[in-house]
Amino acid sequence: MSYQLVIVGPLETNCYVFFCPETKECAIIDPGAEADRIFSIITSLSLKPVVILNTHGHVDHTGANVEIKDRYHIPIVLHSADLPLLEENIQLEFGLMLGAKPTPNPDRLLADRDEIKVGHLSLKVIHTPGHTPGSVCFYTEGILFSGDTLFCGGVGRTDLPGGSWKELAKSLKTRIMTLPDTTIVLPGHGPKTTIGEERESNPFLE
User: How far is the CA of 151 from the CAs of 23, 34, 154, 164, 176, in angstroms?
Assistant: First the structure.
């Protein structure tokens, strides 16, 4: 199991290219901008993209969906509860400011506990509403791609449309902090961390 991090766009979104070393199949997680930089990683590693995964529907995580889909003809995957976000005017206006492009509608809608196959590997979907209604994390073999649900020393904001601190707190307590302390957390922004480190020091988890 391997991944490559590409930090993209003015909001420095963490885009991850998660791939199976044996088959070279890869998933592109949260391609928020700068598609050419993502293409460069894929080409340099001779990878075969099979799916675009969005942890949620905010434009800084979906802004390069269309370019990647057009190039590789692969499906876009998003949780059903975030579909309304794709049509919100505030999202579209914010996207213009960021230089991001509106995403096509997803080809597949995620649900909790779905599994996404990538070569011989799989990613388990963990629905974690709070930052947005359809926020999800992807989990595999001790690694959590946490999107904007959990950060190093912080959590996702809940003051945007669809956000809910009550839901986020519940998601963190019942879905995320039940994972082993050794789990590596790869967030949507900022440095990586572990569940154990966040349990001990994250002020939002007290």
Answer: 31, 22, 5, 17, 12
Tell me the longest C-alpha to C-alpha distance in the chain.
Answer: 45
Q: Is 118 within 8 Å of 20 (Cβ atoms)? A: yes
d(CA 49, CA 27) in angstroms, rounded, equals 6
Q: What is the pTM of this model?
A: 0.94
What is the number of structural domains in the chain? 1
Are the CB atoms for 54 and 30 separated by under 8 Å? yes
- In which order are the strands placed within the sheet that holds 143-147? 115-118, 121-127, 136-140, 143-147, 184-187, 193-194
What CATH number does residue 91 fall under?
A: 3.60.15.10
- DSSP designation for 24: -
The domain in which residue 170 lies consists of 2-205
pLDDT 10s digits, 59-75: 999 999 999 999 999 99
Which tens digit of pLDDT belongs to each residue from 125-158? 999 999 999 999 999 989 999 999 999 999 999 9
Residues in the chain: 206
List, edge to edge, every strand of the sheet that includes 76-79: 2-8, 13-19, 25-29, 48-53, 76-79, 108-110
Identify any residues that bridge with 110 across adjacent strands, giving them in sequence order.
Answer: 79
